[in-house]
Design goal:
Layout lengths: L12 H5 L2 E6 L10 H8 L6 H4 L64 H8 L152 H6 L65 H6 L1 H4 L8 E3 L21 H4 L8 E3 L4 E2 L2 H7 L4 E4 L7 E6 L18 E4 L2 E3 L6 E3 L6 E2 L4 E2 L6 H4 L2 E5 L13 E7 L2 H6 L1 H12 L10 E7 L3 E5 L8 E5 L15 E2 L4 H14 L10 H12 L4 E7 L33 H11 L2 E9 L5 H4 L1 H4 L5 E5 L8 H15 L3 E10 L3 E7 L3 E4 L2 E7 L5 E7 L8 E12 L4 E13 L2 H6 L3 H18 L2 H23 L8 E3 L5 H9 L12 H13 L2 H8 L2 E4 L9 E3 L2 E3 L17 E5 L3 E6 L5 H6 L22 H15 L6 E6 L5 H6 L12 H12 L2
Parallel strand pairs: 1-6, 4-27, 6-12, 13-14, 13-18, 18-19, 19-20, 33-34
Antiparallel strand pairs: 2-28, 3-5, 5-25, 7-8, 8-9, 10-11, 12-27, 14-15, 14-17, 15-16, 21-24, 21-26, 22-25, 23-24, 26-27, 29-32, 30-31, 32-33
Helix pairs in contact: 12-13, 12-18, 14-15, 20-21, 20-22, 21-22, 21-28
Bound molecules: zinc ion.
Length: about 1100
């Protein structure tokens, strides 16, 4: 057995955040608190304060066995357990022995819905926990939804149709910029000493200390602002020292927050739900929370229209104003002189469109394209996110679009305008992405808006050195004393140069106020299906081996705990108590009333008990090889796992290979192969709410459940998947996993499991998204539970999860040149630190339809529509969702044609920015989630839907519209050079067989799978030098690996494929297929532009759209 003896604690700090974490400690005065979280670390063992968490623990199944059957008198005594089996060690009991297992399929726990109610439960439980959530009209797919009103309606979908009405819905958006969160210019700020140790090192910070302030910065009022000609006109770099405007005239925007005071922890569950929003109080209310006027003194009220300051728009943004920036005053205080004269406005399209009438210039994004004529619209390089049309000084601070992206990078000023555009407004987030560099601030004071709790960010305005204005609610806040010191430059009096104000992506070390209890240790529980069926697949070998190899890489610290449960018709626990010579197996066969034998020895310290754990992992695969038990008591096993994990929270990884058949959560097959084709009546909704309810229980105890489904048969993923969806877990699916029949899956499982167990993880997390007043966020997509209107509960957060939200424009954004948006993710790191990761994005507001189209981000739009279509498929039907997707294209292109195009032309016209929209939507229709046809198994379809909901946009796009490359003629021209490797960059080809030549070989990268198709007449050179076989005919039928040959061709090809694989968290299998192989149909299925038996070709699709548009 390979058992590398890696030293423990191999995962350092950097492991938590990628390579280049930088920390900034705070100023001179406050260092005492710098590492408060670590202090709590020491005491954190006690799982104290359970009361705070207990609100969601259902008062169900008591731990004590109620039946006297097993006389289990206490948790410490194993012997009476499970009949005669007491004290048993790992040897699997002989099969014949059956410990009174009450076989009760349909029986359900007291809190479960009786199976008979299943059908009735379906509609209401489909995607919202609240009955009546689906009352919105479903027939028309509009994006202006009713604001989410129900507290728990996480995955709701309101498609209320509000055609053209000027309704009041906020929209919101933040899209990204090209600016990676990695730049830290502040390191070189003028005047500052060489940075030396400005980061990290608590206590090493120099001691400049409290200088007198008053004399330098007039605290109170500054001169009246510049005349607000045509609205705010300022630009961030030269924020003038403007004071608050006259307080009287300007109405104060309503401020919203759950609590206005830092310590006010009484955030109410406004809905009266059971959920106590403890986290709400900590993280602070958002705009969605109860709204009430700020109690702030009146003289702090600020009209939002008076936008002196900082991050407003580039002057030329207003068409009326000249680039000279009228009304700007230079700041004597903070900004470098150079920036006072406005830098040239960014020459984004907006400026041009604004003056288009006069100049008859047209930005590229608006160039009308006749899609029927221009067939070669696919760019040969990966499509980039559009760059928001902001002043470059602002844009360069903007959030990276890989983290935060908006469907419309030009935000429509009103909902009416948004309605006209017929495009969805929403955000796509990848908030916990692995970052190579992440600024981390350790400070005793985290500066946030007193009203809306927004974290200070690059887009706030400094009115003067002592006051900053919130860019979300416009409240004026004081700059705390300690914020005056810049730890980076070590200069006093430069609050605007603090890292918090220089980085759109930043992480804070959270002080103890951000904790409901001391940070818990990382706890990992593995739950394995060991039924006959499971053992037969051979998965347990692979999993145990992979775990064994990576045990030391599990993120954590000296407190990390681990445990194991196995199950078939009974549940098996493993005591790993110190002092045992080998692990001890405890079998509980009462699956009706699951209890935990000796709970204190089942989850044990990883470091202190490593040998026993390794022993178990080595033994486990062999223990059940003779098992004939075919039943699966998954539900009871999950209940046991939940109970075991409840005190601390943590992560449950469950491996399942079949339909659960025993105890609560038992399921019946619903897949009827002959009906797979029918778009309706397929079972996309769960058949029981057991898994969802259990997931909510888990969520309440900070437990997430990740599901690995390895099954060749229907396993009802629609029901099982709920366990992960609502507990913020992940779902993995290995269809027809078998170590011998399907060996290529073994490598995939190994690789993906390694990523899974070693990737960063955050515990006890919540995420809130805030946006500038006037915008509102309503529907959330992803795996989580919506705890209080807008607070997403994430018992675990992982770096591979994506989220999407829909937004609307609730109040007109008049006089707002820009809006902002902020996501804040509060979590406990595997090191036991409480941290907050904040991303902020700023986008311009526009008033014309052409500007809205100009800023359209077609990939983000497609991603959001895909999420909405999943909801629609579940709540209505697949065909409904498909219709809605097609209508989205028709409606937007119709609107463009009738409202923007000045000259009507024949053909199907689209603005350049949306030229790929029909193609992407067609690709969605052909995607496994949404396609019709008989060849998609139900679980496979459901899994694809899970991926749509949970994957970051970049992977979603790849699986929707794969990239096709010709690879038999790779060259170094234009290649990337990474770490001495040369990575060829072949152009991306259109997905049509027209682009294939029988002389060539092509690689199709569909994200989680790759196909290499080799043409019949492919050059002999490629066949021998890359494939390593003598002739075309000798290419093996089931080839899945390229041999590593010493030829230049082989090295290039492998470098390219490896590079593609390295960039994603999953491991795509490579299938090498000959011209006429059995897998050819899978390859052709992805040829989006071609006709298939059940779907239109791209050209036919365009004709269809054209017909509808011209109606
Ligand atoms: Zn605010």
């Amino acid at each position: 057995m390979a058992q590398p003896g890696r030293p423990p604690a191999a995962v350092g700090h950097s492991g938590q955040n990628g390579a280049g974490e930088q920390r900034y400690t705070n100023g001179p005065v406050q260092n005492s608190l710098v590492h408060s979280s670590q202090m709590s670390d020491g005491q954190g063992y006690s799982s104290a304060v359970p009361g705070l968490y207990s609100h969601q623990v259902p008062a169900k199944v008591p731990l004590q066995p109620s039946s006297g059957q097993y006389n289990f008198g206490g948790s410490q005594n194993v012997s009476p357990l499970s009949n005669q089996r007491s004290g048993q060690t790992i040897n699997r009991p002989s099969m014949g022995h059956t410990s009174v297992v009450p076989l009760q399929h349909a029986s359900s726990g007291p809190q479960m819905l009786p199976p008979s109610q299943n059908s009735a439960a379906v509609p209401s439980s489909s995607s919202s926990f609240v009955p009546g959530a689906h009352n919105a009209a479903l027939s028309n797919w509009q994006y202006d939804q009713t604001p989410m009103s129900q507290p728990t309606g996480s995955q709701t979908h309101h498609f209320a149709h509000i055609a053209g009405t000027a309704s009041t819905h906020p929209s919101l958006s933040l899209s990204g910029s090209t600016n990676p969160p990695t730049s830290h210019q502040y390191t070189v700020s003028p005047g500052g000493p060489p940075l030396q140790n400005s980061y990290m090192k608590p206590g090493s910070v120099p001691a400049p200390v409290n200088r007198p302030l008053a004399s330098v910065f007039p605290p109170a009022r500054s001169p009246p602002g510049p005349p607000p000609v045509g609205g705010p006109t300022l630009v961030r770099p030269s924020a003038p020292p403007v004071g608050p405007p006259p307080t009287s005239s300007v109405p104060h925007p309503p401020l919203n927050s759950a609590s206005n005071h830092e310590g006010d922890v009484t955030a109410t569950a406004s809905d009266g739900s059971l959920v106590q929003n403890s986290y709400d109080a900590i993280e602070g209310g958002g705009f969605m929370a109860t709204t009430f006027p700020s109690p702030a003194p009146q003289n702090l009220n600020l009209g939002r229209s008076i936008g002196y300051s900082y991050p407003t728009l580039p002057p030329a943004y207003q068409s009326a104003s000249s680039p000279g920036a009228p009304g700007m005053q230079s700041s004597p205080l903070q900004y470098p002189a150079g920036s006072q004269s406005f830098p040239q406005p960014a020459l984004g399209g907006n400026h041009l469109t604004a003056s288009m009438g006069r100049l008859s210039l047209q930005p590229e994004g608006l160039r009308p394209i006749n899609l029927l004529q221009e067939r070669n619209i696919l760019p040969v390089t990966p499509l980039q996110a559009p760059v928001p049309n902001l002043h470059e000084e602002i844009q360069k601070l903007n959030c990276n679009p890989e983290l935060f992206r908006c469907t419309l990078t030009n935000i429509p000023q009103t909902q009416a305008l948004l309605n006209k555009a017929k495009l969805p407004l929403g955000l796509l987030l990848h908030p916990f992405k692995d970052l190579s560099q992440l600024p981390v601030v350790t400070s005793s004071t985290i500066v946030r808006c007193r009203s809306c709790r927004t974290y200070i960010n690059p887009f706030v305005s400094f009115l003067d050195q002592r006051r900053w204005k919130c860019n979300l609610c416009y409240r004026v806040n004081d700059v705390p004393e300690e914020f005056m010191y810049n730890p980076v430059t070590r200069v006093y009096g430069e609050p605007h140069k603090r890292p918090e104000v220089q980085n759109a992506t930043i992480e804070f070390m959270a002080p103890s106020e951000y904790m409901l209890r001391p940070p818990q240790p990382p706890v990992y529980l593995f739950v394995f299906d060991v039924s006959h069926n499971a053992i037969e697949t051979g998965y347990l070998n692979t999993v145990c081996k992979t775990l064994l190899d990576n045990l030391d890489l599990l993120p954590g610290n000296t407190r990390t705990k681990i445990g194991f449960i196995t199950f078939d018709s009974t549940i098996h626990f493993y005591s790993l108590q110190e002092g045992l010579s080998q692990p001890q197996m405890l079998i509980v066969s009462d699956i009706e009333d699951v209890f935990i034998p000796m709970p204190e020895n089942l989850l044990v310290n990883l470091n202190e008990n490593k040998e026993l754990i390794q022993d178990l992992l080595r033994t486990l695969p062999q223990m059940f090889t003779k098992s004939l038990e075919t039943q699966s008591a998954l539900g009871p096993a999950l209940q046991a796992a939940f109970k075991l994990m409840s005190p601390t929270g943590g992560r449950i990884s469950v491996f399942q290979t079949q339909l659960p058949s025993l105890g609560v959560g038992a399921l019946k097959s619903r897949e009827e192969p002959n009906q797979r084709a029918a778009a309706k009546d397929i079972h996309l909704t769960p058949s029981t709410d057991f898994y969802k309810k259990l997931a909510l229980d888990c969520s309440g105890q900070q437990v997430a459940v990740d599901l690995f489904l390895l099954s060749g048969q229907y396993s009802d993923l629609a029901s099982l998947g709920c366990i992960s969806r609502y507990s913020a877990g992940s779902v993995y699916y290995y269809q027809s996993y078998h170590h011998q029949h399907n060996p290529v899956q073994v490598e995939k499982l190994q690789k993906e499991l390694k990523r899974y167990v070693t990737r960063k993880i955050g515990f006890e997390a919540v995420m809130r998204i805030r946006c500038t007043k006037g915008l509102s966020i309503h529907t959330f997509h992803g795996n989580f539970f919506v705890r209080s209107t807008d607070l997403l509960s994430l018992p675990n957060v992982n770096p591979d999860a994506g989220y999407a939200v829909q937004m609307s424009v609730e109040e007109s954004l008049t006089d707002m040149p820009v809006v902002s948006f902020q996501s804040a993710l509060l979590y406990t790191s595997s090191k036991g630190e409480r941290r907050i990761r904040v991303h902020t994005m700023c986008l311009p507001v526009v008033t014309t339809l052409s500007d809205v189209y100009l800023g359209a981000d077609v990939q983000a739009i497609t991603g959001l529509l895909a999420n909405m279509a999943v909801d629609r498929s579940v709540s209505a039907s697949l065909s409904d969702a498909r219709d809605a997707l097609v209508n989205a294209v028709i409606d937007s292109l119709s609107a463009y044609r009738s409202l923007v195009l000045s000259i009507q032309q024949p053909g199907l016209m689209a603005p350049y920015s949306l030229r790929l929209f029909p193609l992407h939507v067609l690709a969605l229709l052909k995607q496994k989630a949404f396609q019709t046809g008989t060849n998609i198994r139900l679980d496979e379809r459901i899994f694809t839907m899970c991926q749509v909901k949970n994957q970051p946009l970049i992977y979603l796009m790849l699986m929707t519209h794969p990239n096709l490359y010709r690879v038999d003629n790779l060259t170094d021209e234009g290649a990337l050079n990474i770490n001495d490797r040369t990575i060829p960059q072949p152009p991306i080809l259109q997905l049509s067989v027209e682009k294939l030549s029988r002389d060539g070989a092509y690689l199709m990268d569909a994200g989680s799978v790759m196909f290499m198709w080799v043409g019949k007449n492919c050059g002999q050179n490629f066949i021998s030098q890359v494939l390593g076989v003598p002739s075309y005919a000798s290419i093996p039928q089931n080839m899945t690996h390229l041999p590593e040959l010493e030829t230049a061709e082989s090295i290039r090809t492998i470098a390219f494929i490896s590079w593609l694989r390295e960039q994603r968290p999953f491991f795509p299998i490579l299938y090498i297929i000959r011209d006429e192989g059995p897998l050819k149909s899978s390859f052709l299925q992805n040829m989006i532009e071609d006709r298939t038996e059940s779907a239109l070709s791209y050209y036919e699709f365009l004709l269809h759209i054209q017909q509808q548009v011209n109606k």
